[in-house]
Design a protein that fits this description.
Keywords: Membrane, Transmembrane, Transmembrane helix. The chain is mainly alpha-helical and 381 residues long. It has 13 helices and 3 strands; from the N terminus they run ααααβααββααααααα. Helix 1 packs across helix 10, helix 1 packs antiparallel against helix 13 and helix 12 packs antiparallel against helix 13. The protein is globular.
Length: 381
């Protein structure tokens, strides 16, 4: 029989921070699909970007490491609630497999809207899935050992020039007209999940203790980031340099590598995540209540938002005078070659409209899950 751990209440700071990054994630994806320049350039390329575009992309770097870290922490808390290694292992492995299947079916179709599935894209959902499978296999290992393994990978992988798809992005041909694009190489992201699993025990502390601890850890991470980055000592393959003015020099300083996540990327983004967690340990208010609505149903929101924003892309293209015959799928998402799209201000307006429209749906689904906690399948969505 499964024995429940006394820790049964939700950790509000997790839901609040996760809700915030889910909103930022939607901004990033709407920009990817619809911004007028998204198919022709990198928004963090200092030779062609604008400060507004750069920062729109940069702030969303917070999403993936936060989502992965909190998935690890949630896996730890889940294991403590169940107090049953076998049950927890089966859950982690089955949920991990489910996430991998979702990535290459519903998520990939939502991204590309390509019925031929010419491109399979491995992103954060599959990386988390593989991480949960690995955690399930290591469940009897001391969480501290798991965390140390994660820290070692985060801290040391920049020493080596690794080209394997396990460590670095790449393209793997799957036969004629089909390719697997590894956008999120699993090992660097699983390392973040491992650290989150180890740090999951911090959420068992009293709220005020957590708040202080998260603030200290966040400041230390950012301090180490600034120290290493200032002298271009170690931790990122792209050193910063003087630019045409002070603002662009600052952008160069914070422009670190996400693919794969470098040590400095992890320090900077997880540092901000810890500061947000510290802030989120405050008493609730109307804004935190809204964020919790999104943060309690992250996978449901993730799947749903693709099937809202991608059809909206087609509406935009039709409104701009294109016909379905002009649509080009695969890496173009359906956009005509070199044409179509929205200015950045319109991307922001559309983003606000989308997240506003998803709010009542997420609130309904969250309430449904709360009323039907005995339905096992709900724990997979």
């Amino acid at each position: 029989m499964e024995v429940r751990h006394p820790l049964t209440t939700r950790i509000h700071s997790i839901d609040r921070v996760r809700g915030l990054v889910m909103l930022l994630m939607a901004l990033d994806h709407i920009r990817d699909l619809m911004h007028i320049g998204s198919l022709s350039g990198d928004p963090t390329d200092l030779l062609s970007t604008t400060p507004a575009l750069f920062l729109t992309r940069w702030v969303t770097h917070l999403c993936a490491p936060t989502f992965v870290f909190l998935s690890g922490a949630s896996a730890y808390l889940s294991s403590q609630k169940r107090c049953d290694v076998g049950t927890t292992r089966r859950f982690l492995i089955s949920r991990g497999l489910w996430l991998v299947v979702l990535e290459f079916t519903l998520v990939n179709f939502g991204i590309w809207f390509d019925v031929h599935f010419n491109v399979f894209l491995m992103q954060v959902i599959a990386a988390i899935g593989l991480g949960l499978i690995t955690l399930g296999a290591l469940l009897t290992v001391n969480p501290k050992v798991v965390g140390v393994i994660g820290l070692a990978v985060i801290g040391l992988h920049n020493f080596f020039s690794l080209t394997s798809p396990l460590f670095a992005p790449g393209l793997i041909p799957l036969g004629e007209n089909h390719n697997l694009v590894v956008g999120y190489p699993p090992i660097p992201w699983i390392a973040i999940l491992f650290v989150g699993f180890w740090c999951g025990r911090w959420f068992e502390r009293p709220r005020l203790d957590r708040r202080r601890l998260f603030a200290i850890v966040g400041l230390v991470c950012i301090g180490v980031f600034v120290g290493l980055r200032t002298f271009n000592i170690y931790g990122d393959p792209l050193p910063w340099s003087d630019q045409k003015n002070g603002l662009f020099t600052f952008l160069s300083f914070i422009n670190v590598t996400k693919y794969p996540p470098s040590l400095l990327f992890d320090l900077g983004m997880l540092g901000w995540m810890f500061l947000l967690l510290s802030s989120a340990e405050c008493a609730g208010n109307r804004m935190t209540t809204v964020l919790e609505v999104y943060g309690r149903v992250p996978l449901f929101y993730y799947l749903l938002h693709w099937y809202v924003i991608h059809p909206l892309l087609f509406v935009v293209l039709l409104a701009q005078g294109f016909s379905p015959a002009d649509f080009r799928f695969g890496f173009n998402f359906g956009r005509p070659e070199g044409a179509g799209g929205l200015e950045l201000w319109a991307v922001y307006l559309l983003w606000l409209g989308v997240v506003g429209a998803l709010y009542p749906v997420c609130r309904w689904y969250g309430a449904y899950k709360q009323r039907n906690r005995d339905l096992m399948w709900l724990s997979y969505l």
